[in-house]
Design brief:
- Helix content is about 30%, strand content about 20%.
- By secondary structure, the chain is of the alpha/beta class.
- It has a domain of about 80 residues: Nucleotidyltransferase, domain 5.
- The longest helix has 17 residues.
- It is elongated, with a radius of gyration of 27 Å.
Length: about 140
């Protein structure tokens, strides 16, 4: 079937089979689509440790406090611009919960100041993100 020709002679088919090429390209596309979000810049925060459990996989607005910097969903903002930027994010994302990720070295007063600004914006659901550790067994 791949040979044809006239007068009993055989001639090679000159068409290229593109199916393997398409298969490989689709696999590469899927690999890039999966790994691209992982390559985005993440903000490293040393979270405080706690034995209290927390919700897994909850979606919402992330407010990150690291040193003197404040980030709203990876966008750096100053404390004086926080209210306006936070209001813009809230209107865009709706009534989702807000999660505060605070570095261990950030003073408690700064955390409370940001927390109160979030509550003043009318947010009902605010959570503090901690790094979970297992509770030590007692009696040993």
């Amino acid at each position: 079937m791949s040979f044809g020709g006239g007068r009993g002679g055989r001639r090679a088919m000159s068409d290229i089979n593109v199916t393997p090429l398409v298969d490989v390209m689709l696999v590469l596309l899927i690999i890039f689509m999966i790994t691209a979000p992982a390559l985005l810049q993440q903000i490293e925060v040393n979270l405080p440790k706690s034995t209290v459990g927390q919700a897994e996989g909850a979606e919402g607005v992330r407010v990150i406090l690291k040193g003197d910097d404040i980030f709203i969903d990876k966008e750096k903002v100053s404390l004086k611009d926080f209210d306006a930027r936070f209001a813009a994010v809230r209107t865009r994302l709706g009534e989702r919960a807000v999660f505060i990720e605070c570095d261990e070295m950030v003073p408690w007063g700064r955390t409370v100041a940001v927390f109160s600004r979030i509550k003043d914006a009318g947010v009902e659901k605010v959570g503090l993100v901690v790094e979970g550790v297992q509770e030590k067994t007692k009696g040993r």
